[in-house]
Amino acid sequence: MFTLSQYLFSLNDPYGLFRSLAGLTPERDTEGRLCYSVGNAAVSFRVQYRGTRWALRCYFQPPKRLERIYGEHYYPRELFLYDTPPHGQWVSVVLTPWVEGEPLADAIHKAATAHDKVRLATLSARFDALASELLDAPWAHGDLKPENIIIDPDDGLHLIDRDAMFLPEMLGECSPELGTAAFQHPARTASDFDATIDDFSVALISTALHALSLDPTLYDRYGNRDGLLIDTQNITTDPALQEILQLYERQGDAIRYRIARTLLRRRPATLLCRELMHLLGKPFAAVEGEVPELYFSNEGLWGFRTPERIVIPPLYDNGYDFTEGLAAVRLGRSWHFIDRTGAVVLSCPPCEDVKPFRNGRATLYTATDRYEIDIEGRRV
Fold first, then answer.
1. Which of 52, 285, 318, 352 sits CB 3.0–4.6 Å from 330 for a disulfide?
2. From CA 60, how far away is CA 290, in angstroms rounded?
3. How far apart are CA 304 and CA 309, in angstroms?
4. What is the per-residue DSSP string for 52-96?
5. Distance CA 28, CA 167 (A)
């Protein structure tokens, strides 16, 4: 077990302390202090080596599999770490290219506290693009969280801290660590170790970040938590997640609503999460002349299909067939009318039931009333 003080002492004057990285020089700030950041398992120093900036990662208790994960960037028994000078021992380090930028967590904090919806929407879109790549990859990061994602000056996202990574050759092994609890499913165990271990984290970050782009005041209420808005350890009763679900429900955003609902499952719904994440930003392909019919899925939800294909996947809690080009669908407790691409055309006021459009009018039912609306949503 090594300490931060040991690394600071040794790297303060590292001449002669490296086996093969001779000439490596730690960078210092304007006051002469070493530039570094500390995590739970390691400290990363910003260093110069052969005219290039690198990240030197030094471990307090070196985890297994580092060589398999980092390959040529792993240097076994490379740095002489002092115990009590002149005594010490050789320790292994990891040297990777430095990524200029700031942690995504910091970018989210700045944008959310400023209530900058435009910036939050950009960050949300960037993360979803990264998530799509992650979900299709045969490997997984293992500790996915905004602190482990660097956003560069061009808004590109880069993963750092891959110590808990899963690689295909590790299939059948147990996970060396379970990642940061605030971004992991509470039921995850060491035996949950395959290419799907990032799926819950992806769903959680995507859900919370997009919600912030719609309502940054969520950060005012829940931004002081360990994770990103949502309390994973009390997720079934978490008020932040309930607010987010209601936000997506009112907007009629069926895909986002369903992704958020996967967080409530007793076990990580990896396959379902992947299918839903891949639907984001892709309008459903309606074909001229097709008349999709309502159908019930084995997930207990309703969608629309023709005899040949599924047009709109099962995303809704209830619904009616298309009439006059629109279909009434219920998401949670909210009713909406959608077109054949799944886009919300009209959101209804709070009501218990609706009836489809006939002759330009639809009927809404409340607990005490029944009335009609036109295609613009006006009461008639």
1. 318
2. 62
3. 9
4. EEEEEEEESSPPTTHHHHHGGGEEEEEEEEESSTT-EEEEEEEEE
5. 35
Token look-up 């002349």 returns 289
Burial pattern 6-42, b for ≥16 Cβ within 10 A else e, equals bbeebbeebeebbeebeebebeeeeeeebebeebebb
pLDDT in tens, 121-170: 999 999 999 999 999 999 999 999 999 999 999 999 999 999 999 999 99
CA distances to 53, 79, 163, 192, 197 from 143, rounded to whole Å, are 25, 26, 8, 13, 9
- The neighbour count for residue 377, using CB atoms within 10 Å, is 14
Contacts of 121 (CB under 8 A, 6+ apart): 213
Contact criterion met (CB below 8 Å) for 348 and 334: yes
CB 191 within 8 A of CB 174: yes
Separation CA 47–CA 49 (nearest Å)? 7
Q: In terms of DSSP bridges, do strands 102-103 and 74-82 run parallel, antiparallel, or are they unpaired?
A: unpaired
Predicted confidence band of residue 24 (pLDDT cuts 50, 70, 90):
very high
d(CA 293, CA 291) in angstroms, rounded, equals 6
Q: State which amino acid sits at residue 109.
A: H
- Sign, Cα dihedral of 59, 62, 65, 71: positive
What is d(CA 349, CA 274) in angstroms, rounded to the nearest whole number?
A: 32
Q: Measure the CA–CA gap between 200 and 144, rounded to whole angstroms.
A: 9
Burial of 231 (0-12, 13-18, 19+ CB in 10 A): middle
Q: Which ranges in the chain belong to alpha helices (H)?
A: 4-12, 66-70, 104-113, 117-136, 199-214, 217-222, 239-251, 254-262, 270-277
Mean pLDDT confidence for 317-336: 96
Q: How far apart are CA 36 and CA 28, in angstroms?
A: 9
